[in-house]
Specification:
3 domains, single chain, 2 helices, 171 residues, elongated, alpha/beta, six-stranded parallel sheet, 32% helix, 29% strand
């Protein structure tokens, strides 16, 4: 039993490290000089600023100025304050989108596992898709992690089976 608990702990530790490497590598993909990519730190686009794209992992994007491209968050929210503007698409996984008075989202607005809070004077130029509730988060994130964990468990089982010492048959 103790050996099985250690294997589960090691598997969880490996999955956490893999997620951290993947999340931190997203910072390296910020291609344009005005792109903003953060992990765990809020992104704020001030009223006098213009940003190409904003991507945030585990944090919130607050737009007071103008985002020319897309805004994407994983595990965080998108807040477009008064007179803030997003020209591209706005997508959040596991967070909310809040559009304040006079805010403009010219592209599509998509929310997985969250809500859209919109002032009456806010405008959305594209399509609105809201996949609210935790079932979407479980399908999007939980199912692949479950399959990945099952695959690792299969590999561990196969290696243990192949390395098992042969027991001689008593005559």
């Amino acid at each position: 039993m103790r050996h099985a608990c250690r294997e589960v702990f090691l598997t969880v530790a490996i999955c956490r490290k893999l997620f951290a490497v993947l999340a931190l590598s997203a910072v390296a993909f910020a291609s344009a000089p005005r792109d903003r990519t953060q992990f765990g730190h809020q992104i704020t686009v001030e009223s006098h600023e213009e940003v190409s794209d904003a991507t945030c992992l585990g944090c919130t994007v607050r737009v007071r100025g103008h985002v020319v491209g897309d805004v994407t968050t994983f595990g965080g929210s998108i807040i477009v304050e008064d007179q803030g503007e997003i020209s591209g698409d706005s997508t959040t996984f596991g967070g909310n989108i809040r559009l304040g008075k006079g805010a403009r989202a010219k592209g599509d607005v998509t929310v997985f596992g969250g809500r859209i809070n919109r002032d009456q004077e806010a405008t959305i130029g594209g399509d609105v898709a809201n996949f609210g509730g935790t079932i979407w988060l479980l399908l999007i994130f939980g199912l692949p992690l479950l399959l990945f964990g099952a695959f690792i468990a299969l590999i561990v089982w196969l290696v243990r089976r192949l390395l098992r010492p042969a027991i001689p048959v008593a005559a």
